[in-house]
Design a protein that fits this description.
Oligomer: heterodimer
Order of helices and strands of chain A: HHHHHHHHH
Shape of chain B: flat
Largest sheet of chain A: none
Largest sheet of chain B: 5 strands, mixed
Distance between the termini of chain B: 66 Å
Number of strands of chain A: 0
Radius of gyration of chain A: 21 Å
Strand order of the largest sheet of chain B: 2-8-7-4-5
Helix content of chain B: 40-55%
Shape of chain A: globular
Strand content of chain B: 15-25%
């Protein structure tokens, strides 16, 4: 597992030890926590979720030694508390820079219309990434999204029945496969963009 | 703090940014600490995305959605990728539907070219004969497969229904472990039996909301897997309904497994019965 560059050396181990006494389990919690915090920043419309997640870990790392002695409860909630403070700071900044934000938003919309990643490039990456997942997963995604609107409800219930799982479990499984595909396509697009 | 229950409706409100701060903090804290809530939020997000792509959101919700999910160029790109994956699946499905028509025109053009080049007709005809033989063999396989699919669909239909139609014949089976000294339960098939209902006695202390059964005739290689079975009201028996045409003379084994909410298998019980005429 790679240590985050934003985390001062020496404190990373202490963060892991605080998250869980088993280092392997702690590593998994760490990765998951980073992902969850980034998601929370996104839900709160923060402009740089990854950067803000780094900032959370940065702030916690400065206090972790003391926190391990004094904080009682689930440490993940402390990280979340720090994230909440950052969200408040962000929204204050946004309010103070309304005019600038409007310009950025307009620019972002324009950029979407121009499309930095034309359909052909995305479709190439999609094909490439579809080959990287197992045929079972590919077939499952294909089947899951094959029907639209009302027809999809019965269709998905039928798929779930076939696999002996609930529709909810099926939905989560599809979400995981699709997230993996999306990450693959995003990195493929980045690589292609770098080459150009 | 409100009790730790999150409904699908409140998750959708949360994702559209339509909840107050207290509710937002409550849901976000659960996302951080509770894996089930996190997966439910992700699933709700999934549904919201699909409603957006299918244009099923109200005008206001569509605006809210774009404010939440298309706020930055990166998010817009993510949305486009998600739409691409979905459209790919829909396109493949549509192409499947059109493929038979396309094949007919290809064959016409192949036969058309035979008339123009007779020298190549003989070897190609030999190949066509070979293909026809393989085709007939494949056709037989497909027929068997279709028959099996039809039976599987019929089993699903019978087990979804909770009504008690005429011609149903019930047979209570006790697990093999409980009836060591008893003789094997026998089912005598009659022409008036339209549905066979096996009532599988569940004596274990662990109960499950869903069960899965595997039915196999001794000596056969194939088996039937029946999903989503539910216990009767008292939880003591799990009814399994079967079409009589799949039961021929012989001994049958049923493995009944409790399924946990995460899709993992729980405990299993084994039952046996024989069919005679």
């Amino acid at each position: 597992m790679a240590q985050d560059l934003a985390t001062p050396p020496g404190t990373f181990d202490e963060i892991l030890a605080w998250l869980n006494s088993d280092r392997d389990v702690a590593g998994q919690i760490y990765v998951q926590l980073r992902h969850d915090l980034a998601k929370i920043f996104t839900w709160n419309r923060c402009s740089d979720p990854e950067g803000l997640t780094d900032e959370v870990f940065d702030r916690v790392s400065r206090k972790v030694h003391q926190l391990r002695q004094t904080f009682s409860g689930d440490p993940r909630l402390f990280f979340y508390g720090v994230a909440r403070n950052l969200i408040k700071e962000e929204s204050k900044k946004i309010r103070a820079q309304v005019s600038l934000e409007q310009i950025d938003l307009a620019a972002a919309n324009e950029s979407a219309q121009n499309d930095n990643h034309p359909g052909m490039m995305r479709s190439d990456c999609l094909e490439l990434c579809l080959q990287k997942i197992s045929s079972d997963k590919r077939e499952l995604v294909l089947d899951y999204y094959a029907k639209e609107k009302q027809a999809k409800i019965d269709h998905r219930a039928e798929i779930a029945r076939r696999f002996g799982m609930s529709v909810e479990v099926l939905r989560v499984r599809i979400y995981r496969i699709r997230s993996k595909l999306e990450r693959c396509i995003e990195s493929c697009l980045d690589v292609k963009a770098d080459r150009e | 703090m409100k009790e730790e229950i999150v409904t699908d409706a409140s998750l959708r409100q949360f994702l559209l940014g339509k909840v107050d701060d207290e509710e937002r903090v409550r849901i976000e804290s659960l996302v951080i600490t509770n894996v089930v809530t996190k997966e439910r939020v992700c699933a709700a997000e999934e549904n919201l995305l699909e409603d957006y792509f299918e244009d099923a959101l109200s005008g206001l919700d569509r605006e809210k959605f774009r404010a939440q999910y298309a706020y930055t160029a990166q998010q817009q790109r993510r949305l486009e990728i998600t739409r691409d994956i979905r459209n790919w699946a829909i396109d493949v499905e549509k192409k499947k539907g059109k493929s038979s028509g396309t094949q007919t025109s290809s064959w016409s053009s192949v036969f058309g070219s035979f008339r123009l080049k007779p020298m190549v007709v003989m070897p190609i005809a030999a190949s066509v004969i070979a293909i026809v033989i393989v085709g007939l063999w494949l056709n037989r396989k497909i027929e068997l497969r279709n028959r099996r699919l039809a039976i599987e669909k019929e089993i699903v239909r019978l087990n979804v229904s909770t009504s008690n139609p005429e011609g149903i014949f019930s047979l209570t089976l006790r697990p093999v472990t409980l009836r060591s000294a008893e003789t094997q339960t026998e089912l005598v098939m009659r022409s008036d039996i339209q549905i066979v209902e096996l009532r599988l006695f569940w004596h274990l202390s662990d109960s499950y909301s869903i069960y899965q059964a595997v039915l196999k005739r001794t000596g056969d290689t194939q088996s039937f897997i029946i999903h989503n079975l539910h216990a009767e009201m008292d939880g003591k028996a799990i009814p399994l309904r079967l079409p009589p045409e799949i039961l021929t003379i012989g001994t049958y084994q049923v493995e009944l497994t409790g399924m946990m909410s995460d899709g993992q298998s729980g405990r299993t019980e084994e039952f046996q019965f024989s069919v005679t005429h």
